[in-house]
Amino acid sequence: ALSVLRGAGFPGEVIAWSDVLDQGPLRGEPGTPYFREERARWLAAGGAGAAEQVRAQLDAWDDALRAATDEPVLWFEADLTCQLALLHHLVLVDASAVVTDSPVPQQKDFGSLLATRRRYDRAQARRAWQAVASPDPRALESLDLSGLPRQTAPALRRLIEELPEVGSGLSRTERAVLEEDGSFPRVQAREPVPWITDLFFARVV
Asked: Which of 57, 89, 110, 179 could form a disulfide with 8 if both were Cys (CB 3.0 to 4.6 A apart)?
């Protein structure tokens, strides 16, 4: 995605922010040392690198987001990974956003996509983030998301389905893994909006 957007000829700097917030702990406010420390420890334990290196990368990504610019524009898709990152960013910085239903293809008219950018309700984003980061998930079900992208509500419903279900203790992904004999393509095909990557799928298996 980064190379595609850089090749589109936009003015200014195009950067990536690549933490995968649908995996691991989400505790506290975005951009805070506490939040990044929890992420760094978990990512390092999962093989992403030494904790201090991961922490420095998380710091650098957030610093890049906060850098002064004429107009920051966030580009995200509909999947769970992207929508969690979008909530994180809307809490962290004042920005407009382009939200697409599918990955941006090479030949897409980027000018038309950029024209669809809009500002979303940061107060609602903050409330949604607080529900996502809460140890009690029940608040997720009653959130007012009317001021956020229409893709946010389905993504957060999908997040709820990753909690252990009553009885079996399995998440939706874990159940699909068992029903599809551990086949990554078949499990992905069951998702209206695929989101989990092969690396984290392997961790689930």
From this structure: 110
